[in-house]
Amino acid sequence: MINKTAMITIAGRSNVGKSTLTNALAGEKIAIVSPKPQTTRNRIRGVLTHGETQMILLDTPGFHKARTLLGEYMVGVVKESVIDVDAVAIMVEPIDNIGPQEEMLIDHISRTGTPAVLIINKIDTIRVDLTLPIIERYSRRYGFDSIIPISAKNGDGIPSLLEVFERYSKEGPQLFPDGMITDQPEKQIIAEIIREKLLFCLDHEIPHGTAVEIDKFSERDNSEMIDIDATIYCEKKSHKGMIIGKNGAMLKKVGEMARMDIEVFMGTKVFLQTWVKVKENWRDSGTMIKNFGYTK
Length: 296
Fold this sequence. Notes:
This protein is α/β, with parallel strands linked by helices. It contains nine helices and ten strands. Helix 6 packs antiparallel against helix 8.
């Protein structure tokens, strides 16, 4: 019986493992991951049950110095997501140094008065004794309620982290129905899966200037098959050529990789078609940003 809720925001710089942790806690892939910065653009809600508590986890974009209107939107999402929640979990890498992004994030949270915990991720990459100086440095910097070393990739420390999150639960009704792990629409998740494959397959600035729009999503009559048409937008004509590749090889590779993940997510066969169009400097266009679903 669910009679408590806890809303926890997971924040931090890019590539610290926020989405990997969200997926691990939700028990299913609901947020795309890649080694490239600014992979997550929107706030993503993951839902899980722990004992009598329904936890709502807010996976946020990487906190960074914005250089485009889209970047400003992403930073704004982070700042808004640490307000009116039960707690904020700042995630950092196991480095004995507090970077400028962490400094700014800590300062912002201190002004909100929201309870905060620190998650030191990727402890599987260092010796255990090397976490102590990191814990001491952050303890001197801010009065975190708890500091928890984990490995989101391997699952180390996850049970302890859930126990800490449980402390912030409050009496209240169940917010999401049983079995629901995210409130994202299927079209949004599918678009993000395609963008994840672009991040994986393409280098430099090209994948960061892409957005994906689902034009068609329909089930065939009397057939366990879903037809999906998707348009990939990029900022330059030269980028379009690279996304398509020689004789369409790159676009085919992206489509095949995306289709396999979409079939796992949907639990059925998928026929995916993709096209590429150019929208110059869309990341600095407020109208285009909203059209692609990046709205507060």
